[in-house]
Structure formats: structure tokens, C-alpha cells
Design goal:
Elements lengths: L24 E2 L8 H14 L7 H14 L3 E5 L2 H11 L5 E5 L4 H9 L3 E5 L21 E7 L8 H11 L2 E5 L7 E2 L2 E2 L7 E4 L12 E5 L2 H10 L4 E3 L2 E2 L10 H12 L1 H19 L5 E3 L13 E5 L8 H10 L2 E2 L14 H4 L8 H7 L2 E4 L7 H16 L1 H10 L1 H6 L2 H11 L1
Parallel strand pairs: 1-15, 3-4, 3-5, 5-6, 6-9
Antiparallel strand pairs: 2-10, 7-8, 9-10, 11-12, 13-14, 14-16
Helix pairs in contact: 1-7, 2-7, 3-4, 3-6, 8-12
């Protein structure tokens, strides 16, 4: 359907009109690069008959990532969550770990899964990252580490956090799941803290289907991590430490190699899409765009806005509901906050009282599709649709408020008739 046909609010799909897009547009739809190159890599793997256990493609990808990030050690892992768990083991953490609640649930799960206690710290409203000014008062005799998260690819306040950890004599490490190919003060993320953990899940702009990596400049830690990811084997039949199966397989590494060859194109696409959204929506009343420091390297994967309820008659959740009906599957990152999910909701019943900025931000943020899944035309259409929605916000809000049951229960093609008859 052409957007110009949406002449009134009844043309919106949520009220019974045709969706703007025939196919669903996802946030984090996997980037697929050179298929023939990937298939050739797979054929090579099958010819070699080595499917896992630190094969050719894993070794090659580790070396290329190590050089790209300028780090001494890059160790590929089966996924980012396992990477966090191995990191916690390698750092020999105990007791409490200070961590933001405004992150993907795996960050916090990894701590509790291993029997440690996550201690939630609020975030800075301007950065959406952990607020270092609040960390010191959370440190107790049981605190063993601070786990910072580089949200949206924007580095958290690394220097301040590192200084706090050093003064307290505790470890510091970072969840860099969003921050591959991003930098801090000109130095690539991956070089900070005791170690950093990346996710190369399929939803990331650079991915290995499933996968992740741990980077460190500490030789001793790197050796421990390599042992731990392979059951503690140091030789063919010699085990010298506790370990698990955290290895990345060859097929995943080969997929990563294919994307790495196309990395500049992917990054350029993300940046052009970001600029296109910025041109259309950055000055829209009620929409505050998460901006990036163009003096730093950035992957521009995440197109994120805060919806200010004081300037927008429609809430973030209403906008998401409207967009989903149009087949634009916008996301509410990271709603409702880890502290409001189980088991943390039961373990920390009063957590929201100490996390006011987290509570505010998770109720406002919306992420829009990016990557190869969109282009200038689809971004134009999404932006014009959002602008149209905002221009009719009062009418839409009234109609959504008075027709809740119809919107929930009736098939799309019946909604318009029933709503028009009702109103």
C-alpha cells in the first residue's frame, strides 16, 4: 500500500486498514552477505572434515578479529552468554557483582546462574549506561567486580569505572555485545577492563549465526579462558582444570568470515540508514534520537528513540502497537528492565525504588529496523508513517482508548466497520 493512501486514521492497519508493508520488518534481522562465498567455505570445511575443535576457520577468524580490534587475545566462544559465564569463572568472582538492570537479561542471568548476586545500579539518563557516580555506594565487602555494559555501541564511562574498581581492589569487565567495531577515545572496544565479552548472535550486525568472543590483553586470563572453553583440556587426553564446552564450530566461523569480508559495506549501510532516520525524525516533537559521537568508530546498528510522554500524546507502547500492525516490528529495548523480570522481581521486590532512571528509560525507548533489511525507500515510508501518526496523535489516542476490546479481539478486516459504527 502506498502511504499517500493513508488519508485518515482509519487507514491505519490497527483500525482495519491495509498494513504499510507486506513483509515484516524486524529489528535485528540477520545480515546475509555473499552466499556463494559462504557455501564455498562450507564446502572447504566438509573437505577438511574438521567441524569443530578449533579448526581452520575458527583460528582464521580469531586472528582477523584480534588484528581488527588491536587486542592481544581474541577467543571465540559458542555464544555471548557462555562467554560471560566463562569470564566470571576465569576472573574467579564470588559474592556480588554490580551491574545495570538496563541490559539484556543474559547479562544478569550469567551472574546469578553461577551462584553470585547481581547488585543493580541505576543508569545515566544521557548515556543509558551504568552511572559511575552511583557505583561506590553499592560496593560492599562481598563485591568482587563491576560489570559495565556498552549499550547501543556507546562506550560506558570506562575510565571512571576502572578507577573505582582499582581503588576498591575489585575486578572490572564489560559486556560489549552491542559494541563490536566501536571505539573509546580512539581505542577499540575489546581492550578495556580485565576482559570484554562480545555477542555474535544472528541479530547482531556482525554475526556467526550463534557465537561470541572474549577479548583480553592479559596472557594469564587468556590461557585460563582457552582451557575453560574446552573442558580444561591442555592436550589430547590431559585435563588440567575445570571447564565446559564453549567452543565455536567451523560453520559459524565460516559465516563470520563471509560477513567480515563485507564489513565495510555493512557499516556503511548502517550509517547511511542512521543518517536517513536522523534527517526525518530527529526533530519530530516527542522523539529524542540516541546520537553517536562521530569522532569515534561506531557500528550504528541501533536506531533508538526516546518517546517523551510530555511532548507526545501517544505513549511509546501505543506507537509500538500501531507500528506492529503496519508490519514494522519496532522493539521496546530493554523493557521492563531485568529487575522486573523473574527471578529478580521476586528477589529484589523494592529494586525499582533505587532505579528511577532505568524505570523511566525502559518505558520510553523504541528501536527501529536497520541493516540490510531496510533501505532509503522503506525508511522514508516508516518515517512518513510515524510523522502521520504523530500529526493525528490526539485522535488516535482517543480511538485506541475507547476501542480497546475491539482492537484486541476482532479480526483486522472487521475493525474499521465496527469502530466507525461505534463512533
Amino acid at each position: 500500500m502506498n502511504l499517500q493512501m493513508k488519508k485518515n486514521i482509519y487507514d491505519l492497519a490497527i483500525f482495519g486498514g491495509e498494513p504499510e508493508f507486506d513483509q515484516k520488518l524486524y529489528v535485528g534481522q540477520p545480515n546475509i552477505s555473499n552466499r556463494s562465498s559462504f557455501i564455498a567455505n562450507v564446502e572447504d570445511i566438509l573437505d577438511r572434515k574438521v567441524l569443530t575443535n578449533q579448526g581452520h576457520f575458527v583460528q582464521q577468524l580469531e586472528e582477523q578479529l584480534r588484528e581488527l580490534l588491536g587486542v592481544k587475545h581474541c577467543i571465540l566462544i559458542s555464544n555471548g552468554t557462555t562467554g560471560l559465564e566463562i569470564a566470571i569463572r576465569a576472573l574467579e568472582l564470588q559474592g556480588e557483582v554490580i551491574v545495570p538492570s538496563h541490559t539484556f537479561i543474559a547479562t544478569v542471568h550469567a551472574i546469578l546462574w553461577l551462584g553470585l548476586k547481581p547488585v543493580f545500579c541505576d543508569i545515566n539518563h544521557d548515556t543509558h549506561n551504568i552511572n559511575p557516580k552511583l557505583i561506590s555506594k553499592l560496593i560492599s565487602p562481598q563485591t568482587s567486580a563491576i560489570l559495565g555494559v556498552h549499550l547501543w555501541g556507546r562506550a560506558c564511562e570506562i575510565d571512571e569505572i576502572t578507577n573505582i574498581a582499582q581503588r576498591a581492589g575489585i575486578r572490572v569487565f564489560f559486556d560489549a555485545a552491542h559494541a563490536f567495531h566501536c571505539s573509546h577515545k580512539g581505542r577499540m572496544i575489546g581492550n578495556f577492563g580485565d576482559l570484554e565479552v562480545f555477542s555474535f548472535h544472528a541479530t547482531k550486525f556482525f554475526n556467526t549465526l550463534e557465537g561470541g568472543a572474549i577479548t583480553t590483553n592479559n596472557d594469564e586470563l587468556a590461557n585460563k579462558i582457552r582451557l575453560m572453553k574446552n573442558f580444561g583440556f591442555i592436550d589430547y587426553d590431559r585435563v588440567v582444570s575445570l571447564g565446559i564446552n564453549g567452543k565455536l564450530n567451523e560453520i559459524s566461523a565460516a559465516f563470520g568470515m563471509t560477513l567480515l569480508d563485507d564489513l565495510e559495506n555493512i557499516l556503511s549501510t548502517n550509517f547511511e540508514n542512521y543518517r536517513h532516520y536522523e534527517q526525518h525524525l530527529a526533530n519530530l516533537p516527542g522523539f529524542k534520537m540516541v546520537k553517536y559521537d562521530q569522532r569515534e568508530k561506531c557500528n550504528y546498528q541501533y536506531i533508538v528513540f526516546e518517546i517523551d510522554e510530555h511532548d507526545s500524546p501517544l505513549s511509546r507502547d501505543q506507537i509500538v502497537e500501531i507500528l506492529w500492525a503496519e508490519n514494522i516490528l519496532a522493539r521496546r529495548y530493554f523493557f521492563p528492565g531485568c529487575h522486573r523480570m523473574q527471578p529478580y522481581r521476586s528477589l529484589y521486590t523494592d529494586a525499582s525504588l533505587s532505579l528511577p532512571i532505568t524505570e523511566q528509560v525502559v518505558s520510553r525507548t523504541i528501536s527501529l529496523p536497520n541493516g540490510f533489511a531496510v533501505n532509503s525507500d522503506s525508511i522514508d515510508r516508516m518515517s512518513q508513517l510515524i510523522t502521520f501518526i504523530c500529526s493525528r496523535a490526539d485522535q488516535i489516542d482517543a480511538l485506541m482508548s475507547t476501542n480497546k476490546e475491539i482492537l484486541k479481539s476482532k479480526p483486522q478486516k472487521l475493525r474499521r466497520h465496527m469502530i466507525e459504527r461505534k463512533t
